Amino acid sequence: MTIYCDESGGLNAGAMTFSAVMLTPKAAADIHARFRAVTGFRGELKGSRISLVERAYLLELFDRAGGRAWVAVAERGKLAQSPGGTLPSDLALYDALLNLAISRWLPETGGVCTDVVIDDGRYDPTILAHVREEIQAGLGQWGRASLADSRRSDGVQIADVIANTLFNITVGSPRAHRIQQIIDPMLASNTIRIAELTQIP
Questions:
Q1: Which of 2, 112, 153, 183 has the fewest Cβ atoms within 10 Å of its own Cβ atom?
Q2: Residues 146-166: tens digit of each pLDDT
């Protein structure tokens, strides 16, 4: 099984969300193929670029394929400040959210070898290489952590949509109410689960 990872937002936007989506590579490819065949969508699939109906359809396909996700969420107003009264950097927050999301998955993998694929687009490659090494150390012999260009990864693009979905809800965007209705059944069934981060470890 593979865990695909991507984030949405930042502290300047009011919140950052980080999704860790568990799917087989074949299931991720099949979801993309069906979604594109039905909608005619072209280019990289991103949550910020699709309509509400397209988002609902993609998430239905994800649910139907047996996909599951942990989404780590940090809301600016709830995030504990450092002793100096400052909030963490986006990079520190990204790192903490990634570790939180992956840590929620590891007890559920049952010792099965798991690959973790992280979007390489947000930060400098040298910084992301360090992040990848941290995750690899946590996986040990049970898996492999790698970076991927989201444009070439079906799973990372699905993770982007799920991270963006929770970002919209967390910051109360104009679409938040409709998006909440879309994912409520998936939250109720634990297809999508949320882990809230209020303090950097």
A1: 112
A2: 777 787 889 999 999 999 999
